Amino acid sequence: MAEAFRFRILAHGPAGSPVREAFTPAEPRPGWVRVALKAMALNRLDLWTTEGLPGLRLPLPLTPGCDGAGVIEALGEGTTLPPGVEPGGSVMLAPGFSCGVCPACLRGDDMLCPGYGILGHVRDGTAATHVLVPAANLLPIPGNWSFEQAAAFPLVFLTAWEMLVHKCALRPGETVLVWGGGSGVGSAAIQLVKALGATAIAVVGSEAKAMRCWELGAEHVIVRGELKALATRVRELTGKRGVDVVFEHTGAATWATSLSVCARGGRIVTCGATTGPETPFDLRALFAKQIQIRGSYMGRREHLWTLLSLILKNPTNPPFRPVIDQIFDLSEYPEAQRHLEAGSGFGKVVCRMS
Ligand SMILES: [Zn+2]
Question: Is residue 51 domain-resident?
Fold first, then answer.
């Protein structure tokens, strides 16, 4: 058997600072399984977990990594597996954990559970050859998808689905401005907007990324330059009305523009703040235009099954699929973190277990 190893955040530090260590994977307890990982995908949360967040104490040392796919290697005693999942079979992982017994969990809002946490953020994650997860976090891998694709799927698609479908109740024919169209969550959002019969206007940082957004189904792509010019362009594209929904995850640098390009009665939904968390804005724009602001964090685990069923309707040509930017070997995980932080790629950064 190849050596089992994992990356650990020993103390908060810059991207790329987790260190490699050998370990002996534990036996799963009842209701849990051990997965031999074949691929993992990075998310912004890997960087925030590594760097540390003000006011948040994380249980260090910790293995980062929220997304993963692999093979079930061991089951805890009496563990029941979800439909379509078998011992020894291939699985992808739902990243969220919750208690399963509180009122929020019982109505399906697991991400509102007081005990909600994310793999690789509050417990050891997927930057490792092996991971322990509850059986309820397992999903079958659709059709002919590779482990790399499966690992790149859950977190960003669940996040984008929750934002568009549940937080914003996006309707066919509406228009959505997607900031950061080349990011993992942005590239998922563009595809979901199209699949839902709405129109995506994507914002990207370069011409090369613009081409990729067209291919994903964006109706219009704006290469980001001066924000005032961008706002003017959005108004042109929407007959001066503005967009019905702004898909925000960029934060401070874009927030004022998001308000400015949002239509009367429109919605701004946000799941992140990659350019900074604090920004002043004009409350008059908010109430005069009757804009609704909605915060979103991950999504209902149930909806990964919804997304899976949409894929399985046509597995060879699904309405959406993860976009992979670059594949590293797991031993290069720190380098993969630095690549993600640099922000030059398009889509998901993945590590493969060789
Ligand atoms: Zn709960």
Answer: yes
Q: How far is the CA of 102 from the centre of ligand 1 (A)?
A: 4
If we measure between CA atoms, which residue out of 217, 174, 167, 214 comes closest to residue 192?
217
Ligand 1 centre to CA of 133 (Å) is: 16
Going by C-beta distance under 8 Å and a sequence separation of 6 or more, which residues neighbour residue 200? Answer: 175, 176, 178, 181, 189, 190, 193, 194, 217, 218, 219, 220
pLDDT given for residue 315 in this prediction: 81
CA of 261 to the centre of ligand 1 (A): 37
Q: Percent of the chain, pLDDT > 90? A: 94
d(C-alpha 27, C-alpha 74), whole Å: 7
pLDDT at 151 over 60: yes
- For the chain, the domain total comes to 2
User: Is residue 144 domain-shared with residue 197, that is, in the same domain?
Assistant: no
Tell me the pLDDT tens digit for each residue of 57-88. 999 999 999 999 999 999 999 999 999 999 99
By the CB criterion, residues less than 5 angstroms from ion ligand 1 are 98-99, 102, 105, 113
Kindly state the average pLDDT of the residues 50-59.
Answer: 91
Judge whether 316 lies within some domain.
no
